[in-house]
Amino acid sequence: MLIVAVAAISMVAGACAKKKVASASTPPPAPEAKAATNSTSSSTPTRTASSTPARDATPGQRYPDARTRARIDELLGKIEDAYFDYDKSTLRPDALKALESDSAELRDILKDYPNYKLTIEGHCDERGSAEYNVALGDKRAESARDYLVQVGIPSVQLHVVSYGKEHPVCSDHDENCWQKNRRIHIVAAASAPGK
Question: How many CA atoms lie within 13 A of 163 on its CB side?
Fold first, then answer.
């Protein structure tokens, strides 16, 4: 009986010592390990998980935080679509003015976040073949990209895509409507941070 009692006390004492050692070694792990360890807890992981990416995202991935992305989206919303003449890809004076409006501030923000990309969409009206309009939409988007590169936005942050006549904003069959469809539109690229 005495041997069994001593063995039980030893096991309990040993188990307590292991718990103390395990809990003493938990705080020093890297932030990633803390987030993984705390994922089963209800209140602590939220604070740890939200503060860690904010610290690491900008220097490591050079990708803007949520507040900066919101400002970029606001600027993109202010930059009006640039419109084109029929069968042309040259930027008209009103198109240049539209692109110029907030491109300087956009440039200043984007230079700090080289992994953040924009997509310049080229669009056409319904006249002409699908193939011809895809090529024309591409030329229009490239004209806008060239202008934005001139004002200092790095070309590697500007992706060009042509939708041709596939995404009209107006479906009437007259010049007023067709003019609205001959445009470029700038959006934030749909890609994950770091890509």
Answer: 18
- Domains of the chain in sequence order: 2-61 (no CATH), 66-188 (3.30.1330.60)
Name 167's Cβ contacts closer than 8 Å, sequence gap at least 6: 121, 123
pLDDT at 66: 87
Tens digit of pLDDT for each residue in 165-191? 999 999 999 999 999 999 999 998 855
Q: How far apart are CA 98 and CA 106, in angstroms?
A: 13
Query: And the tokens for 54?
Result: 């904010």
Find, among 77, 120, 67, 66, the residue nearest to 101 by Cα.
77
Q: What is the pLDDT of residue 65?
A: 86
